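Practice problem: predict the structure.
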Amino acid sequence: MLGKLIKNEFKSSSHFLSGIYMAVGISVVFLVLAYMFKIKFLSFASTLTIILLAVGVVLVTLIFVVSEFYKTLYGNQGYLSFSLPVKSRDLIASKAIVSIVWVLLSYVIGIGLFIGMYIYLSSLVGEDTKMIVEDLLDSLNMLPSRSMLIDLIVIILIMLFIQIAALISEIYFAITLANTRKFQKHGIIFALLIFFAVYIMVQGGMAVLTVYFPLTLKITMDGLVLSFSKMNTDSSMNFGIIGSLFQLIMCFLFYFLTSYLMRKKVNVK
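Answer:
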């Protein structure tokens, strides 16, 4: 049943989100054409559009997944969703998984667009593209080891995935708590207050754990090394992971709390 829910969530959300991703693709095509045929006006317009889309794709995706969660569970479609013969935890899991995938994709696209624009704009002043890429890698302190580069990309993606999952779980919990019978009369303002309170609590917990329980994952030529020492801030090959582990635990906590509230406390409009 969870698989079917995820499939339906992807199908319904793709109708909207595919539009902004298509806009990104069209803008990139126009930028390539402007570069090939030296069309200055088209180059300027495409560059500005891509910069705006790099930020907009993340914001639009976040707003969409949050509004869809609220609309399908606590808005006009709430009765239909709660009448489905599925468990509340499956409803939450399907929406969370799909939301995390879309938001992660939007982050990757946004970062890729910024990197691409950096390379493109640098090439306009006469620098060789290959040298630009090499300088970019050097600025990130990446060593020329393929295995280390793969480890770095995987770790960054995992940590980004956890951060997005934590953000989504906090938002879902705040919206659900605000729609319980006791707090529903306070409206969306109360949901925002809950979210900021939860967010500050999680960030504070991460900060405390990072200071008093340092746990660092180091990327070396011999592989990954786990160290109980403070992170070396001079190297991008070291990652403090205790905060990410705490975020992951809080994801599951908010997941079960949201599921409980949906079963026992929520008042569907």
